[in-house]
């Protein structure tokens, strides 16, 4: 697998509002900082502006100007093209996007580039016709406008991101980070993506089918008392854990434990356990060649049929299809295990 080059569109001539800098900074952070100990070479990042390079004055409504070394002509030579966002005026007021940008996006796609949008960047891909007939998403506050303006796009407002192979779209803000880490997983394997996520102090993997908006997704209280028991549960997912088991370990009644966990996480104890078990199963599918039956046991999901049921229902694909997306990670894991076994034999 190879990292390749990533071209990020900077809409400098039509304005980059300060609140859109978050989406712009995500690909810069994920793909722009070399991580040679994880993969060498790392990605080659290029910021490609839509306007005149080195503009002297920032647009009046943004308060800043971004100067880029590359222009739209450089999109066509990239392996991956990312549109982080488009200005609010293009979304809310229907202000046209630059024709040169739309033409450059089409040219990059025709040249074989993988096309990616974060948040409202989907409007640019849709304007270029790259989302016609495809399932796509954007920030849930703008998906109705996206669907109304581009009726050929199958807009899904409920997911974090959509991977349609050569065209990928994400919801807004942190969902863009989820998608960028997903790209790293595709390109360089689960181990590299997990290590990068750890350095960024973010979850290693949230599946794209996870809901964008969940009531009480942000804890309403800093309930540090739950931390030890939840850590213990993660370390013992292969056991038949119940709410009563966790409540007893937390020195609470089941009713109190249920209430406090739901207040802190926005989900029920049983759903929290299911999410953790699915996460463990994903890691094992990505990084090992263990049989599905064994993965069901280690993750606490039980039989292979039960594992398949929850995978299809929660993630939208079968365990086998999910595993086939990460062949490099399993090969590296198998190779590392072989080396460890050989070294252990030499020492004995």
UniProtKB/TrEMBL annotation:
It holds the Pfam family DJ-1_PfpI. Residues 329-339 have a biased composition (Low complexity). Keywords: DNA-binding, Transcription, Transcription regulation. It comes from Streptomyces niveus. Residues 323-348 are annotated as: Disordered. This is Helix-turn-helix domain-containing protein. It comes from the Bacteria. PROSITE patterns: HTH_ARAC_FAMILY_1, HTH_ARAC_FAMILY_2. InterPro entries: Class_I_gatase-like, DJ-1/PfpI, Homeodomain-like_sf, HTH_AraC, HTH_AraC-typ_CS, INH-QAR. Residues 227-325 form the HTH araC/xylS-type domain.
